[in-house]
UniProtKB/TrEMBL annotation:
Enzyme Commission (EC) number: 4.2.1.96
Catalytic function, reaction form: (4aS,6R)-4a-hydroxy-L-erythro-5,6,7,8-tetrahydrobiopterin = (6R)-L-erythro-6,7-dihydrobiopterin + H2O
Oxidoreductase as UniProt keyword: no
Family, similarity comment: Belongs to the pterin-4-alpha-carbinolamine dehydratase family.
One GO term of the biological process aspect: tetrahydrobiopterin biosynthetic process
UniProt entry keywords in alphabetical sequence: Lyase
UniProt keyword Secreted, yes or no: no
Classification via InterPro entries: PCD_sf, Pterin-4-alpha-carb_dehyd, Pterin_deHydtase
Full protein name: 4a-hydroxytetrahydrobiopterin dehydratase
């Protein structure tokens, strides 16, 4: 029997997610809870079971400034995304590999916490196009 993570009823906004810290994930979120949290994160989508977003920048320097800031965030949260970086774009993909399902991906609250923090980082003005 697979475990499902408890719902995160206290999370009602992206700001609530940003205030949280990642912790060891024991079980995947169920589909309803993942959909509820996704609705709090404009610009993010589910793709192949992963939480994804694309960010566009003015130039390569701004792209890399964002990527470096995101790397620091990932280090402090101990939760690391898959990144695709081009000259003026960064695609971020989050999933929690330790709870991956048979399809190869699983989502935990940590993915949504980091997505909210990545959005805040982008909005802070690291070179948005």
């Amino acid at each position: 029997m697979s475990q499902t993570a408890p719902t995160s009823a206290a999370i009602d906004s992206a700001a609530d997610l940003q205030q949280r810290r990642c912790r060891p994930a024991e079980a995947a979120l169920d589909g309803a809870e993942a959909a509820r949290l996704l609705a709090l994160l404009p610009g993010w989508r589910l793709e192949d079971g992963r939480l994804c977003a694309d960010y566009d920048f003015k130039n390569y320097h701004h792209t890399m400034a964002f990527v470096n800031a995101l790397a620091y965030l990932s280090h402090t949260e101990d939760h690391h995304p898959e990144l695709t970086v081009t000259y003026k774009n960064c695609t971020i993909r989050y999933d929690t590999h330790c709870i991956a399902n048979h399809a190869g991906a699983g989502l935990s609250e940590n993915d949504f916490i980091c997505a909210a923090k990545a959005t805040a980082l982008f909005q802070a003005g690291t070179g948005a196009a």
